[in-house]
Write a structure and sequence with these properties.
Number of domains: 1
Radius of gyration: 17 Å
Structural class: alpha/beta
CATH superfamily: Aldolase class I
Helix content: 40-55%
Order of helices and strands: HEHHEHEEEHEHEHEHEHEHHH
Length: about 260
C-alpha cells in the first residue's frame, strides 16, 4: 500500500483497528433532517468523540472549523432526493480534485444493488476507485437500499458488500442484520455498521452494535442513532466504549445513564 493511502487509512482507524464514524451527510437527499437543521450545532459537542466525520463538501465548508476537525470522509455521490422518482439514480457530485483540495481522508459513495440503477452505481464506484487509487485516497462504499428496506438481510448485504470490495472499495459501510457474521466473513475489506432495524431504546442500539463487533465489524457509521437521541453526547460516549473498550451493552447503558444524569 502506498504511503499516502496507508496514512489516510491510519487516520480513519484507531490503533485497535476499530472506528466510530459520525455521518452528518443526510441533508444531501433529505434536506434539513430533524436535529440536523443546523449541522454546526449538531456536530460541535460530538466531534471530540468521533474518529472521523462523513459529510458533504457544503456542510464541511460551512459547519466544520479547519483548525478543529477530525478526519473527513467526503460524500461524493448524490443527485436525487426523497421527493424524486428514485433514490437509486445517483451520480458523482464531487470530483477527486475537490477531495484533494479539501484534504480529506477518504471519499464515500452509495451503491444500489438490485435496483434499476445497479449498473450505473457500481460503475460510479469503479470509476471513483480508479481515481482514488491514483491519488492515494480510500473509497468507502455504502450499500444503500433506497426505500426497499425489506432487502436488509444477511444474504443481500453480503452480496452488496462483496461486490463493493471486488470493485476496489477500501471500506464498506453496510446495515447490521441478523447473522451479521455472514456479511463480514464474505467481505475481504473492513466493514462498518450503519443502523440496523428501527429500534425504540438506546439498549437496543447497544445490543446490535455489540453483536456486530463480535461478528466481525470494525466499527460503526451511525448518525441518527446518535444525534437524534435526547442525550447525544451520552450516546456517543457509550458507543465508543463498546467499540474501543469492548464494553458490554449493559456497561454501555450504565455509561449512558451516568452521562445523562450529569447533564440533568
Amino acid at each position: 500500500m502506498e504511503w499516502g493511502m496507508a496514512n489516510r487509512m491510519a487516520q480513519l482507524f484507531q490503533k485497535d483497528g476499530h472506528c466510530l464514524f459520525l455521518p452528518v451527510d443526510h441533508g444531501y437527499f433529505q434536506g434539513p433532517t430533524r436535529k440536523l437543521e443546523e449541522p454546526r450545532k449538531t456536530l460541535e459537542p460530538l466531534l471530540p468523540y468521533a474518529d472521523a466525520v462523513f459529510v458533504t463538501r457544503g456542510v464541511l465548508r460551512s459547519s466544520v472549523e479547519p483548525d478543529n476537525s477530525k478526519p473527513i470522509i467526503l460524500r461524493v455521490s448524490g443527485g436525487t432526493s426523497m421527493v424524486g422518482k428514485d433514490l437509486a439514480n445517483e451520480g458523482l457530485t464531487t470530483s477527486m480534485e475537490e477531495a484533494i483540495r479539501l484534504n480529506v481522508a477518504a471519499v464515500g459513495i452509495s451503491i444500489f444493488v438490485g435496483t434499476d440503477y445497479e449498473k450505473e452505481s457500481l460503475l460510479n464506484l469503479a470509476k471513483l476507485v480508479d481515481e482514488g487509487e491514483r491519488y492515494g485516497i480510500p473509497v468507502m462504499a455504502v450499500t444503500a437500499v433506497g426505500k426497499e428496506l425489506e432487502k436488509r438481510d444477511a444474504r443481500y448485504l453480503a452480496l452488496c458488500s462483496r461486490i463493493a470490495a471486488e470493485l476496489g472499495a477500501r471500506v464498506v459501510k453496510t446495515y447490521w442484520c441478523e447473522n451479521f457474521d455472514k456479511v463480514t466473513q464474505g467481505c475481504p475489506v473492513p466493514v462498518v455498521m450503519a443502523g440496523g432495524p428501527k429500534v425504540d431504546t438506546q439498549r437496543q442500539v447497544f445490543d446490535f452494535v455489540y453483536d456486530g463487533m463480535k461478528k466481525g465489524a470494525v466499527g460503526v457509521n451511525l448518525g441518527r442513532n446518535i444525534w437524534q437521541d435526547e442525550h447525544p453526547v451520552a450516546m456517543i460516549k457509550a458507543l465508543r466504549a463498546i467499540i474501543h473498550k469492548k464494553a458490554t451493552p449493559k456497561e454501555a447503558q450504565e455509561i449512558y445513564d451516568s452521562e445523562k444524569s450529569k447533564k440533568n
